[in-house]
Design a protein that fits this description.
248 residues, 9-stranded mixed sheet, alpha+beta, 4-stranded antiparallel sheet, 31% strand
Length: 248
């Protein structure tokens, strides 16, 4: 039988749905958490059977069914579960999931396409961690046109905010006067990176749609709709298959 490892107290509190890990750390530091009758401190670890109290109330790890959701995000929605300014957010599109899920990574307000949401923190951390370099594929419409020099710059990296972007793969899908559709394959996920990359080489992004993450394609999922990922798709995301540095 596998040995059950203790987890950090702030992670336990977060998984119980009480607060984020950062907020949990604040609760511990403020003396609001006790474990087995003793005052807790940052760095403490616990097991599921330990008696953990937050502000005098015992909390218990719920039996949560892990969910892995694919959403086709429309333009005009921000990638957050709530917004103080009353803007439309993706939480409104997944209200009927039945579990509390949150986005893995982000798409900016003006972008659309594939977004993954989950309640599995370990899965989310694996997908987002830079060392795993999970690729993402985008369909990008740019104006007015594109030449070989611009394509080479985008593929080899351009300087943004004093740092050079990682190499990317760029393919021209469709070209007509004043408009070009590109397929861009990136391994980074920095905020508005594609828009900034295109701006750096003199291109305007008219439309940006994410169509694939790792080995999982969005396919024909309608805009604004969501579906559960299959077990096979979850495994694909975690293995991130590559052939000769190109996605399968």
């Amino acid at each position: 039988m596998a040995k059950i490892e203790p987890i950090r107290l702030q992670k336990f509190i977060s998984q119980c749905g009480i607060a984020s890990r950062r907020k949990a750390e604040e609760l511990i530091a403020q003396g609001n958490v006790k474990v087995n009758g003793k005052q807790a401190k940052l760095g403490d670890k616990v097991l599921a059977q330990d008696k953990v109290y937050v502000k005098g109330k015992r909390i218990v790890m719920p039996k949560v069914q892990h969910r892995y959701i694919m959403l086709n995000k429309p333009r005009g929605f921000i990638t957050t579960m709530s917004d103080e300014r009353g803007r439309k957010c993706v939480a409104q599109l997944v209200e009927d999931v039945g579990e509390r899920v949150y986005p893995v990574g982000r798409l900016d307000k003006d972008s659309e396409g594939m977004l993954i949401l989950t309640n599995d923190g370990d899965f989310a951390n694996t997908i987002m961690h830079p060392k795993n370099s999970i690729y993402k594929i985008y369909r990008v419409t740019v104006r007015p046109s594109v030449d070989e020099e611009q394509l080479v710059k985008l593929e080899t990296g351009v300087e943004i905010d004093g740092k050079k972007t990682a190499p990317a793969q760029i393919h021209v899908l469709h070209k007509e006067p004043g408009r070009v559709v590109l397929e861009m394959i990136l391994h980074e996920g920095k905020n508005r990176e594609i828009r900034k990359m295109c701006e750096a080489v003199g291109l305007e992004v008219a439309r940006l749609k994410r169509t694939q993450i790792g080995g999982v394609k969005m396919g024909m999922l309608k805009q604004g709709d969501w579906r559960d990922l299959t077990e096979k798709e979850v495994k694909k995301l975690l293995t991130n298959p590559m052939i000769n540095n190109r996605p399968l």
